[in-house]
């Protein structure tokens, strides 16, 4: 085991060195950071998971320039991977402790100086997985003011922290920080809002060109092209495919193109086109004809158009406390379902059913018909029990309907409004999780109702059986019509299976009591 771990560690050290053979600095930097992202399992964590972890650690209310200890950083990263291990399926497991150690060591090596809240947020937001537009929106929320306008000094600070990542993988000469970078990214004397920020940074500027490329690398890792490479002659390509615009039919796989491999009359100076998907010749011809005839719709914008003015965020600090997700969900579930999950209600219900079942069993075991007073009291208690159970059934149905109405209303929040605020998105994820838990609770209540109706059905059959037995053992011989009516009751009992309402069961039970009073009436008269 130790040798195996050592071998894996050695391979982890050697793998980044192989990327040095890539002669294009942009691809070299993106490949190195993508390797670190996968090695630390950060590709399985999106920006919303980072926001939740930062909020649970209490760093959302701290000043961005405030310092943070190494212990607090370790706790933050540990909570990230512990929550990830709970979300992953059993077929895909990770080692949270190992991932925590690797990521913390890399962050400390990259920062090298004072560790601040902003540096941790910037690096985690840059290295995590998920959609690029979501990460950029979170970055803009950290570098803009309350009016939704970019603050250039804050963006300059973000560039300073984000460009420490290429420097940490020895790409500082190509993507190092300078004081003029922030001013060169945006037009002068112009207010930069969210949509302009997304257009410019996603385009991107030269200093951040490796960031969208890292996301494109993740998207094409499993894309297969059923053509052979013109240099290495491999049967099929995986990842990017590069086609020369001068040499007809000349195509290179990403490994050969990144390392400058050429053959024949092709040269590295020729213009190449990068392909991230495979299209058959028939598809290309159909696409060309549609474009010629004007049947193809115009390209969609690279990102949705967001409102210029930021929406005011809701202060949810007094509604949902800053604590782990599981505890918050359990607290809200207990609060909403208090009236349904009352212990006294369940205890009384089960006690009544157990008491009545025991009394019926004792009556059948002795075979003795109770006296007039006992029969009268027992029948009265049975009628009261049936009425109570039917009332409880109606209450359960009302509670289920109320809970569904509340959560349907809570889930009708507009996604366009919620998508503009990362904090509100995190709260909505909590509400969705609570909705799922409440739906499970309602399904358990329905299962309890079904069991209750089965018990009532059994009680009804026992009542009818008792009425039939008492009619045969009575001194006064009943009329043949009465005997036929009693004998027909069990066959009719099968006509009322358990349903959502207990009206059918209650009607059969009342009919059984009516027949019982008819048979016992001679003994009650003086």
UniProtKB/TrEMBL annotation:
Q: Which GO terms describe its cellular component?
A: cytoplasm; plasma membrane; synapse
Q: Where in the cell is it found?
A: Cytoplasm
Concerning Pfam families, the annotation shows: EF-hand_2, EF-hand_3, ZZ
The Gene Ontology biological process annotation of the record reads: synaptic signaling
Instruction: Locate the region Disordered.
Output: 465-526
Amino acid composition bias (Low complexity), ranges on this chain: 467-487
Reply yes or no: does the keyword Nuclease apply: no
Among CDD domains, the record links this protein to: EFh_DTN (cd16244), ZZ_dystrophin (cd02334)
ZZ-type domain sequence ranges: 224-280
InterPro entries recorded:
Distrobrevin (IPR017432), EF-hand-dom_pair (IPR011992), EF-hand_dom_typ1 (IPR015153), EF-hand_dom_typ2 (IPR015154), KCMF1/Dystrophin (IPR050774), Znf_ZZ (IPR000433), Znf_ZZ_sf (IPR043145)
* Coiled-coil stretches: 375-455
Chief subcellular location: cytoplasm
Keywords recorded for this protein, A-Z: Coiled coil, Cytoplasm, Metal-binding, Zinc, Zinc-finger
Q: Which GO terms describe its molecular function?
A: zinc ion binding
Q: Which family is annotated?
A: Belongs to the dystrophin family. Dystrobrevin subfamily.
Q: What is this protein called?
A: ZZ-type domain-containing protein
Q: Native species of this protein?
A: Astatotilapia calliptera (Eastern happy)
